[in-house]
Design goal:
This protein is mostly helical. It has one domain. Helices cover 80% and strands 0% of the residues. The protein has twelve helices and no strands. The chain starts with 8 loop residues before the first helix and ends with a helix.
């Protein structure tokens, strides 16, 4: 059965974000660099306006899913599991930073790929294609900012010798791995599409490729913000809005209403980040903003991934 990615206000927003990214790129070409204050401001706006809010409705998604399938839902149990996952992963970052970083990269690759190919069926060829595509997205962002990425990785892992050796290996072989992953993706996606066809519009494809191209040219902070906040979060909002709107949730009457309802939990997440920053200050990471930001995003991504995974699988079967 063919599925289509419909045009929507969400698509217009991603095109606007691409235009903003193009303006930042033009600024960089004209001045030679984008001032760090502007990079930080853009990053903060994108993460605060869409990046964190797109995960602030997880409790609503879980409740609506449970009700629609006739299951009981307890907000206390849901939040308990959610917070427990955050606390366990936070502890892992303190005691096993290298392993935690690998986990973050794997779950990010899956989450990005699953969202970008959300209209694909829940079959192993498409699932493998999702993981490979998400890996390619990460590689485009990280390999095109290798020195910045290496600096963050070494600061997160506290200068681990293993991390240094790994990053040096990636420096030498990164393009090879990218080529292998790209070849596997196109081959497996072609096989998957023969058995379970999907249809993705040309506009969708061009929009995504333009954003990824800009990400490869901008500095690391705005590059990550452009993809994560300007594309991934918007597409996630679109998936969430469709689900809640069809379930006749009052808060999903309009996209703007849905976004407003995400703000309270977004505020709590911001408070949590401030608290986490003080905790990490005492672990040896000091008040180094980049590691703290990426670690914070990772610990809230883990439980969010579970909610979105169930939602996308549910929609793929409809």
């Amino acid at each position: 059965m063919k599925k289509t990615v419909a045009k929507s206000n969400f698509s217009r927003i991603t095109w606007i974000n691409a235009l903003i990214g193009l303006i930042l790129f033009a600024w960089q070409q004209y001045d030679g660099e984008i001032p760090l204050k502007v990079q930080l401001m853009y990053f903060a706006i994108m993460i605060g306006a869409t990046g964190i809010p797109h995960g602030a409705l997880d409790h609503v998604i879980a409740k609506t899913s449970a009700i629609s399938t006739g299951k009981n839902f307890s907000i206390q149990q849901f939040l308990g599991r959610y917070v427990l996952a955050i606390l366990v992963y936070s502890a892992a970052w303190i005691f096993f930073p290298g392993m935690s970083l690998v986990i973050f990269l794997l779950i990010s690759a899956w989450h990005f790929g699953e969202t970008d190919l959300s209209n694909a069926d829940d079959t192993w060829p498409w699932n493998l294609s999702r993981l490979l595509w998400g890996s390619l997205v990460l590689m485009i962002i990280l390999l095109s900012h290798f020195d910045e990425t290496t600096s963050v990785v070494l600061r997160i892992t506290k200068g681990s010798a293993v991390a240094q050796t790994t990053m040096e290996h990636i420096r030498v072989n990164g393009l090879y791995y990218f080529g292998v992953a790209a070849s596997l993706f196109f081959a497996i996606a072609a096989i998957a599409n023969r058995k379970n066809k999907i249809k993705i519009s040309i506009q969708y494809t061009i929009n995504l490729l333009v954003i990824l191209l800009l990400c490869s040219q901008l500095p690391l902070l705005p590059a990550f913000a452009l993809y994560f906040g300007g594309w991934h979060a918007i597409k996630s909002f679109e998936i969430i809005f469709k689900f809640l709107h069809e379930a006749k949730e009052e808060m999903a009457a309009k996209p703007l209403t849905l976004w407003k309802n995400a703000l309270p939990m977004t505020f709590l997440a911001a408070v949590g980040f401030i608290f986490m920053a003080f905790i990490w200050k005492g672990t040896g990471l000091k008040m180094d903003p980049l590691p703290a930001i990426f670690i914070f995003l990772s610990i809230i991504t883990l439980p969010h991934l579970d909610v979105m995974d169930k939602l996308i699988n549910r929609q793929s079967k409809q």
